[in-house]
Amino acid sequence: MFPHCRHFGVISCFVVMILSLSIARASTQEETKQITENKSEEGEPLEISEAEKLETVVVTATRTERLLTETPYSTEVISADAISASGAASVAEALAYNTNLYLPRTFGGVGLEMQGLSSEYSLILIDGQKVPGRVGGVIDLSRIPIENVERIEIIRGASSALYGADALAGVVNIITREGQKPLSLKGTLGLGFDKSFLASADVGGRYKNVASKLALGVQTSPGYDLTPGDIATTGSEYEQFNISSRSLVDIGENLELKQRTDYLYRDQRAVEARSSGAVFDRANRTETFSFLLEPKLRLSNLSDLTVTTSYSLFRDQYLLDQRKSSTLDSVQDTWEHLVSGSVQWDTQEWDSHRLSVGLDASYESLRSERLVSGVGTRNRAAVFLQDEWSVPFVASLSVVPGIRLDYDSQFGTQPTPKLGLRYSPWKPVVFRTSYGWGYRAPSFKELLMDFENQSRGYVVAGNLDLNPEVSKSFNFGAEFTLLRFWKAGANFFYNDLENMIATDLVTQGSAGGANKYSYVNVGKALTKGVESFMQLPLWTFGYLKFGYAYTVARDLILDRRLEGRPKHRFNFGLKTRVRKTGTELFVNATRVGERRFFIDENLDGVLDKVDADAFVHLDLNMKQMIFGQYGIYLKAENLLNAGDPDFLPIQPRTIVCGLSGNL
Amino acid sequence: MNKRISAVDLFGVFRFVFLSALIAGCGAKLVPTPGPEEASDTLVNEDEEIAPNFIQTSDNEDGTYQTIVDAKSHDFWVLFAFNTSDEVGVDDLTDSIDWDLGFKRYNIIANGGISGPGETGVAALMDEDFDSVERAPDVEYLFDAEDSDDEDQDPDYGFLQAGTWYNYNPFDHTLSPKEIVYVIKTTTGQYFKVSIEDYYDEAGDSGVVTFKWAKVDGPQ
Asked: How many beta-carbon pairs below 8 A join chains A and B?
């Protein structure tokens, strides 16, 4: 990006640091107090109070607004405060600090594994709407910008009873910010020692009955190479641009209209080498556009009617350009459209019941040269019903039955029930248990693939008779909160998957004929384990957090571990803020245990067990406030330089420094 | 008053949406840069079964030769003779004893058995080093034969007697030659040792077989 000034990042970092330290010392306490934007009172024991969470309103667990502490299903929240403290530059980075999630790097980008289940079994939403663009089952979380994110909500366990397809392992709902204040301006600028660059700005305002917000972001990165000896690169070089707008209009007293538009453009480039000696320049251009319109009508004091319509487009161009030849050149241009609408009625008209009834409908299409006839379409309609019943005479017990019925033009009907229980015998203690079904619809590629590899003579064909993959999941958890800041919790989970889709040889190629592979519902898997955490206050400055997750993930057909799933994950986090000096420190260390892979290392046709080493990912972020509204930060990622080209192709140690400002 | 403001704002919102929709999906098309003009592209002639210039042989000046066969085509066999160390152009390969080996993609045939009227046989030496083979072994030299009752459904070519001559890497779908020394007994009773070295050209295109060979003495 800046070839002419190699040490630009380094020098500017130093200058900014020195300047800021001197200014910070001079700045008065008054100024710093203004900017902390902390809702807690002066006398609160914690300056960055995670206590805020107690008042946090969440939406994902029930598809309605509920207080975090009262949700029937355990919801984890990554708050704007936590995101800002960590200095995360994308949603992927923000999620990586959660013990219960593992974010593998895949062909399709940075994925998300929950409860030992791979990326295609988690539903990713932005403001409750499905994020388009799964590539190889993965929604690339590294492309979703963070600057506009208000909080991220995570629900673990099958949630298809509310959300339909893909919500087997859980749901991640990324909630974006609305314009609130009369006028707000925000900007961030970051420069990395690796010559990465990041800039974002947003303008928000409220005038009379209209609140609007416009956000822009640019990111570039030169990529990285973990094997400098060869011509191939490891991490793609990329440029990204995004623009988004949000509006909230109060039309009259009982009607509110929400609107959201997002566009994201991302170009990635890398060099790929094969053992044949072929070298490719790989380019991947993705564009995402989404539009949402959501009127919410207050029918009475006790019930709301929300109508949501949305459209999203994902275009993915993938080019392999062979050097010195054109034989193996390939271009794939994939267009994915999703139109969806829903109507939801929430009511508390009946004592001790909170009832939600809704209808979802969607139309999906995928255009790709690799599909039979080049295009696949499907319609889906669903009805769901959920009742949150506070059991009379047992004030602390609520029972939440729910059911959803999906009709899909491809595979027919799929029912998914769920039952949840929340019991709090004593205010600091909450028990939650749930049992639910989940399903994943076969993808267009699995249904309609028509791909022939001429050079090797094999054919992959889709299978229109595929059924959805189904899971049954059980979760039982307990959470303790003492004196608001001492917290601990554990959750036991069990997921049983059936009908998993795998490729299989269906016709052995005879002389001159090609082997034909297709997709079949043959797999079975089981994952179980425990997720736990403990949070301790650190005097008045912040807190320490420890997490541990134990996961058993097995392929029941092949009778072996599921590939790449770590059994153990430890997490240590530290977050402090000294208000007097306006200094913040964030440290996070995650140890991911060894992961097993099955690879035919000696090419004898038999898969060998390969255990990739455990690793520790250590990140650090320091932030210093200056002049009240401005902050400078220094972020060190992957300080221990974990990574290897085969099993952990992550970015080596990087240091980024930057400037952020609020008005 | 309120109504007017919201209408104005709504108009603004939709204008923005409209503008955004215009740019959505309009990213420039990615196109590959064409590679240099390839020999095989220009020389493939559909009327002619066998086209010239698909074989290049160079003298390694140590008594061995290196031959590169462009066998990229799925449609025809490229034929080779040790005597001329070059290509053989014949109208019908089943009617000529002038060629010794034939190449099409990863298939290799010898002029004998089901493949041709000659008597070219193949022996495979598994644990031998190419340089140390100075004399043809006193073993049976197999002719290409129909598929027998084995696992695969390919003909039992002499070159497949020790399994495939290559290892297949399922991850990037590439072939790499196994360390096998093949000894060929030609129709004229001469013996040659052959070691297959590569299946790819410089750009990494498949179907280009490179092999090293030398004449050896017959068995004692």
From this structure: 149
